[in-house]
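Input sequence (135 aa), recorded before submission:
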Amino acid sequence: MNSSSDEQLLMADGCAVRVVDAPRVASVRERMPAEADLADTAEVFGLLADSRRLRMLVALLDGELCVCDLAAVSGMSESAASHALRLLRAHRVVTARRSGRMAYYRLADAHVRMLLDLAVAHIEHTEAVHPERES
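Predicted structure, token format:
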């Protein structure tokens, strides 16, 4: 590594910041996913940040459901549920199967299932810190 790249590692967001473990920082940077992949991942997490969409996804952990049932589970109108499902489908979180005029949704794959299972398990065994509630 040359001295100019060392200096770049020591600079973060225009501020002089000491890097304690420069080789490790360089290694992490090399393995970092492409910016487009990180942006796509952030969008998926953004979709999961809505409790009604998340409620639909948790319901799909038990298997396939139609739009009407997902609307009932989530407390959304069928139109809002359908819109939410379109977003989730566009980001490959759910897939759809048509049967006549009905659409049935399921989780897209085992990765989505694992992500939801881990998130639910995490919340069940930890207590979230809510600064706005502390007083």
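Checked by second reader. The beta strands are 11-12, 15-16, 65-66, 94-99, 102-107.
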